[in-house]
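We store chain and fold; example below:
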Amino acid sequence: MLNRRSARRREAGFSLIEIVVAFALVAAALLILLPGFAGSLGGADSARRYQMALALAESKLAESGVLTRIEVGTQTGEAEGGFDWRREVKRGESASAGGEPQPVRAYLVNVTVSWGNARRVDLATTLLAAEPGR
């Protein structure tokens, strides 16, 4: 009967060594998994910043000739969130029909948004606008 009581006591719960081993296993698993989670969070932040830069570039491209008059040259600025933008407008070929020049000229517009460590987004388009003075 004495053997039964001592056997029950030994089987009643976890020993200290079992708990320490369990904590060590959990800690090792966390050390292995945490860099993966951190990398995922960094990737999500990078994708969010890229989306913000793309939206800014699209906005600067869209306002060319609408909110601002098309002028040949370069404009630069800073935007919220640590973004720098640059819009460059160059003259393209003038349109002609039947050998006669038309009152419309093509303008090549390039917008670059940069941020962080050499990260950037480039967008370009060609716009048609009236020749100045016509």
